[in-house]
Structures are given as structure tokens and as C-alpha cells.
Amino acid sequence: MLSEEEVHSNSYADRTGAVIDRQTFFGDDCDEINLGNEDTPPSKLRLNTSTGTENTSPAVINSIEDHDQYHDNHNDHYAQISPEPVPIKFNIIIREFEKRGDGMNAYIVYKLQTEVSGVVGYAKTYYETWRRFSDFLGLHGKIVEKYLSKGIVIPQPPEKSISALTKTKTNSDPAMSREVGIQRARHLERYVSRLVQHPRMRNDCDLRDFLTIDSDLPKAVQTAALSSFGVKKIFKNFQVVFSKMAFHMEEGDRWFEQVQSQIDELDEALRKLYTVTESLVASRREMATSGELLGKALSMLAACEESTSLSRALSALTDVTESVSNAWGKQAEIDNAKFSEAIYEYIMLISALKDVFGERVRAWQQWQDAQQTLSRKRDQKTKIDLAAGGRNEKSDQLKAEIEETVLRIDQLEQHFGELSKAIREEVARFDTDRKTDMKKILIDYMESMIHTHTEMLQLWEKFEPQAHNIQL
User: Fold this and answer.
1) Strand, coil or helix: 132
2) 23-58 tens-digit pLDDT
């Protein structure tokens, strides 16, 4: 990370990155209070600590640290400043889903099981709700509308898929609908879990209603088959591109310049890793299929073999091959669910982080555009005053517009500073969560691989005596 001098070495970084250190209400320079003075206010009286022996506990409790230290040295009696914070628990699981309706009216609903405690607004500790996919997209639209402009990184829900829509509405095979439901349930669970992890969004009223109201929500109007929300997002992206071309932002904050470069590199690396994981999953599935075919061929060979010992060994080899094939199939599903999809989720998170940086660029452009507007209005007023030889009605109108524009410039500058500060906090939170999540992803992958290979080793060790018993 950059030093403080480097961070504040530009024209406006000092406005966006500086954090004002506020003096505590009771500092170390509090005047010593005499207990014998009747004018001493009760709020500043010292605790009675005269025990005749030296005591390292603080005489005046000014902070939580002082309170903890006083409690350690006075187990019999202590002053309670504030209750200990209640630990937050917020777990969301989607394990059940069902298909409702027939034909083109068919859709899948998902059962959300929410365990929550220590969060304001939740009266119970357990909730069960059924939500369809369009409900998730409707919730996402509301969250984006409220929080994106404030610099909050909002996770991306799974996108609508034409193939998934076709399998759900036109395919009568339950297995096909189940495949769509299982994969989408995992994506939706990750999405909602990301929302409740954020300290600001977990108390959102729309999210709370989504998780707690045990009835159908009003149908979202922006989640049709070809979602208008997606169309708006595409149109917005085009606006950003044209805006950057017409009014390019020269980044003046070295910190933002460095972070955006790091994010681009991370995005490229994760996309390459995701491509490799997809190939890995496909290869494991191919190995499972090939092992199954090999087992059938060995079974046919064992049936026509005249040597009893060889036939018995081939039958045992058939069983081992089929078991190994099943193990590769299970490993492929684990790699897909816990490795490949987890990497793809982070690619989508980086996309959301880039959207936040785009909001900052738009805020800067609005600020600069207002400054240019102010300059034009001042030029117009000067020309009118010179032409008319004094103030007139048009000049007075421009004066009012100039005052209004100045106020708007101040608001836009403040918004840009607050947005930049919020993005710094979001990047720090993203970086902390990323390290923890990546560690868990890699550990889960390695543990699953160790378990699979251990299982295969045990299968081949059991087959070894059968191979040695073949009589030539």
C-alpha cells in the first residue's frame, strides 16, 4: 500500500482519503477531581480505589479498555458501562426447491431457511420462505437502486439463462429441471449469503421482508424472460463508455490508480483459473464416463473367460473400475460446486467492484460538468452586464442560477468525497474477505482430492490379492 504522503500527493486525494480524528469526550487530560469538594459534579467523581496498596487499575473509567482492566482487578464489584455486544449469526441455506405449474407457466421456487440472531429487526431466530427466481432478481434491482450510488459493492445474482428457461418450461423430464434447480440453488444461496454478510445491507428492510415474510411477494416487473433490468445495465454500460470518451477522468489519486490496476490483474488471473477449472471438471466427468465404459467391457470379458481365477480377477477389476468411476464423478461435482463456481462468484464480485469505480467516475464527471456550467453562466452574466450597462432581469436570473449551481457544485464535491471514502472501505473489506474465502476454497479442494485419492487407493489395495491369485 502507498504511504500517506503518496496518497495525499494529488489535487483531491486529501479530500477523499483523510479521516478526521475526533477527540474522545473524556481524554487523558481530565482535571483531577477532589472528593471533598462539594462543587464536584457527580458525573466526574472518581471511583473509590483507596485500598492501602498499589493498584494498577484506572482511577477513572474513560473507555472500554479501562472498564476491562477495572473488572479484572475488582471481581467483587465494578461499574457497568455498557452491555457486551451480542454476536451476530446469519446463516441462509437453500436445500429444497420444487417445480410449480405446467408448460409455459412452469417455474421453480426455492426454500430459504434462515437462522439469525443479534441482528436488529428480526423478531425470531428461524424463518422459512419460498421464493421464485424472479423474486431474487427483483430484490437485486432494489438493492442496486439504493446502495450502488453510495459506493457499496453489491454481489451479482445468477443471470437468466435461455437454456435453463427452456429446460424448466418445455421439458417434461424431472431430471432436467432438477439439474437446473440444484445449480441455481447453489448460486442463489451464495448471492443472499453475500448480501447478509455486508454490515449495511443485512439490516435493509427489503432484504428483511424477502427473508421473513411467509407469503408471496409482489411480482417484480423488471424480471421478464429478457430482463429489462439487464437491458438497462447494458445501456448504462454504453453510457459509461461514451461518457469516458467525451469527458475522460484523469485519475489524481494514486491509491485509486494502483487499486484499479491490481483489480484488473486479479480479474484476468481469476478468469484464467476459471477456464482451467471448467476444463478440469469436464476432464473428470470424461474420466468417470470412460471408467464406466471400461467396467462394462471388463464385465463382458470376465463372462467369456474360461480360466476361473482370471475370470474372478476380471470381475473384481470390474467392480474396482466402476467404484473408481463413481469416485471421479463425485469429485467432478465437488470441483464444480466448491471450486469452479466459487471462482466464478469472485469474478462476478470483481465486476461489481468495477461498477462501484464506475459510479465514482460518473460522480466526478457530474462535478466537473457542473463547474463548466458555472463558468458558462458567469461568462453569460458578464456579457449581459456589459451589454446592458448594468443589472437587468436576465442578469438577476443568471445570478440566481449561478448561486444554485455553486450550491450544486458543493454538494457534488461532497458526494464525490464521501463516495471515494466509502469505496476505500469497501476495497479493504473485499480484500479481507477475499483472502479468507480463497483460503477456504483451496483447503476444501485439497481435502476433497485427498479423500478421493485415499478412497481409490483403498479400492486398489483390496484388489491386489485378487491379481496375485491369478493362476497361469
Assistant:
1) strand
2) 443 344 444 444 344 444 444 333 344 444 444 444
Here the cell at position 258 is 494502483
Widest CA span in the chain = 120
Q: Do residues 94 and 188 lie in contact, with contact meaning Cβ atoms separated by under 8 Å? A: yes
The dihedral over CA atoms of 455, 457, 458, 464, expressed in degrees to the nearest 10, equals: 150
> For 130-159, what is each residue's pLDDT tens digit?
999 999 999 999 999 999 999 999 999 988
Read off φ and ψ for residue 114, nearest 5 degrees.
-115, 125
Buried b (16+ CB within 10 A) or exposed e, 145-158: ebbbeebbbbbbbb
Eight-class DSSP state of 161: -
Residue 220 CB neighbour total at 10 angstroms: 19
Tens-digit pLDDT profile for residues 370-384: 999 999 999 988 888
Cα separation, 93 vs 418, in Å, equals 35
C-alpha cell at 402: 449561478
**239 closest CA partner among 415, 412, 348, 361:** 361
Specify the residue for cell string 481469476: 270
Whole-prediction pTM: 0.74
Whether 107 and 181 have beta carbons less than 8 Å apart is answered as no
In angstroms, the CA 314 to CA 412 distance is 78
Give the C-alpha distances (Å, rounded to integers) separating 414 from 18, 94, 367, 409, 432: 13, 42, 10, 8, 28
Domain ranges of the chain: 1-77, 87-246, 258-472
Torsion 171-284-313-303 (CA) sign: positive
Q: pLDDT tens-digit profile of 281-306?
A: 999 999 999 999 999 999 999 999 88
Buried b (16+ CB within 10 A) or exposed e, 164-203: bbebbbeeeeeeebeebbebbbbbbbbbbebbbebeebbe
Would you identify the CATH topology of the domain 258-472? Substrate Binding Domain Of Dnak; Chain:A; Domain 2 (1.20.1270)
φ, ψ for residue 113, nearest 5 deg: -110, 115
Strand, helix or coil for residue 98 = strand
Q: Which three cell numbers stand for residue 385?
A: 452586464
Q: At what angle do helices 341-388 and 254-304 cross, to 10 degrees?
A: 150
The cell for 464 is 491386489
C-alpha cell at 218: 409482489
Q: Select, from the ranges 79-83, 100-104, 244-248, 352-356, the one with the highest average predicted confidence (pLDDT).
A: 352-356
Half-sphere exposure of 65 (CA within 13 A, CB side): 1
Q: How confident is the model at residue 86 (pLDDT cuts 50, 70, 90)?
A: low
The answer to whether the beta carbons of residues 349 and 430 sit under 8 Å apart is yes
Average pLDDT, the chain: 80
CATH topology of domain 87-246: PX Domain (3.30.1520)
